């Protein structure tokens, strides 16, 4: 094989290597941060327990700008639904959320991922936030009890 033929093959291999590395180095986009009505200092947050168990921490509710956007389960989010977001509970899980300040409860369906604010264990729809009487404050200390595992 001539030097020119070898150089052409080396150039083609180098080009393919560069293209392969470029494709591998592209990271997927991170999900948007979960909506919140207000933020409380991390010192007021509590730790969550592992998936499947009772979790205690702060709840927040989705901002109106997320109404109609696609959730992790592929469906459109509705502020009038019982949809909720959890980082650890499996999608499809029904869970009871209890506002620890007033004892009010609501049953939600985990259909999205989040929240993305430290100390928060669940994001709920606005209609669920109204049932829990947490709309004015924006967040509330809650206990999340899974009712099934799908």
UniProtKB/TrEMBL annotation:
The keyword Cell wall biogenesis/degradation applies. It is a lipid-anchor. It is found in: Cell membrane. Residues 76-86 have a biased composition (Polar residues). SUPFAM superfamilies: Barwin-like endoglucanases. Its EC number is 4.2.2.-. Residues 26-67, 72-91 are annotated as: Disordered. This is Endolytic peptidoglycan transglycosylase RlpA.
